[in-house]
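> example.struct
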């Protein structure tokens, strides 16, 4: 019989594998969460594993139980998110676990969705031993986009930028190609593939005519390309974002003349103005209503400053190149911060070498709240 320490190690290893499996669904499950599941048989051996692959498809538990077959009976299921308790496009996972004869369920994070919660209680009522919280922090991090969208009612926002070591995103003459390495630029396509939408502003449109679609990642779901074009003057006919490589949405002020965009069959959303540009909260609400649960903010310093000022940046990913310029625009413009005590303090969660560059990922030291 396994000792308590051995059992704890078995539990942790199984959940860690479930967390890794869940990550394989990033970018293809929205508006649903990413979820991984591992099933051990009664002898503690892996019998099945699976992850939620796409919205509307079988949930992670179903994939794992199908693989396990009869070996699931008397076994344990490890799930990164509390098994769902409702019938949507698929049946409740709680019933699938009960029907398979699972006797113990260990899940990492409770489901905050009021439509789906209660799975743990249903399992207990069926006589199944239920435990919560194993590797909760790891599972939370992997599912941050969906959890944020449910808890705050808006998409999760990751601001991505590339800069020199002295914080410049372009030279004094506005040239910027290429500050970061080819390896870093390829890594950005991974971030795009994991996001539901990619956002840029009018300044980036005018300077770069970006394409914003994912390239070089097989099977990637193309994100919605969003251009914040307050005056409806930056997106011109023939702009690369108007091709059919990915869907595109152009956000303009509610009083802007966007006739040329509608004539070009471009999707347009009209939003209220803010002191500068568009109302960021209204933009995120409009995207959330369209099923967007995560966005990659690739805009320049002005748009990034507006998002920071609005208090809606959940993570920052910076690609720092071993380059010095000494002059040129900084990565972040006015963010409504006037004194050091108002600085947005971040906790660094990861530092990785990407080719010659350094990729730094950080999150606000004080999590953003629903008040914003």
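> example.seq
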């Amino acid at each position: 019989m396994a000792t308590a320490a051995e059992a704890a190690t078995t539990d942790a290893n199984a959940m860690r594998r479930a967390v890794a499996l869940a990550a394989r669904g990033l970018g293809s499950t929205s508006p649903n969460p990413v979820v991984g599941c591992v099933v051990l048989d009664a002898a503690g051996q892996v019998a099945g594993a699976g992850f939620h692959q796409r919205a509307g498809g079988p949930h992670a538990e179903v994939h794992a139980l199908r693989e396990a077959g009869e070996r699931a009976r008397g076994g344990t299921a490890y799930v990164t998110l509390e098994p769902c308790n409702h019938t949507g496009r698929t049946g409740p996972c709680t019933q699938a676990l009960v029907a398979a004869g699972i006797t113990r369920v260990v899940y990492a994070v409770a489901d905050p969705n009021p439509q789906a919660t209660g799975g743990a209680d249903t399992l207990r009522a069926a006589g199944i031993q239920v435990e919560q919280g194993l590797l909760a922090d790891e599972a939370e991090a992997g599912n941050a986009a969906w959890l944020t969208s449910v808890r705050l009612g808006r998409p999760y926002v990751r601001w991505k930028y590339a800069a020199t070591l002295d914080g410049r995103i372009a030279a004094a003459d506005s040239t910027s190609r290429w500050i970061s390495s080819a390896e870093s630029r390829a890594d950005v396509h991974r971030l795009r593939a994991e996001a539901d939408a990619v956002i840029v502003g009018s300044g980036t449109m005018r300077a770069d005519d970006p394409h914003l679609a994912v390239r070089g990642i097989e099977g990637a779901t193309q994100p919605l390309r969003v251009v914040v074009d307050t005056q409806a003057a930056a997106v011109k006919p023939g702009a690369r974002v108007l091709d059919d490589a990915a869907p595109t949405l152009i956000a303009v002020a509610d009083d802007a003349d966007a006739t040329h965009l509608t004539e070009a069959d471009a999707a347009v959303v009209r939003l209220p103005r803010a002191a500068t540009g568009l109302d960021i909260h209204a933009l995120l609400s409009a995207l959330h209503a369209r099923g967007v649960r995560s966005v990659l903010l690739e805009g320049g310093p002005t748009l990034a400053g507006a998002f920071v000022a609005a208090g809606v940046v959940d993570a920052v990913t910076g690609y720092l190149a071993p380059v010095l310029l000494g002059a040129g625009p900084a990565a972040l413009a006015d963010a409504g911060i006037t004194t050091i005590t108002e600085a947005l303090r971040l906790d660094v969660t990861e530092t990785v070498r990407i080719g010659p560059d350094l990729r730094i990922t950080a999150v606000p030291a004080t999590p953003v709240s629903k008040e914003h």
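> remarks
The longest strand covers residues 156-164.
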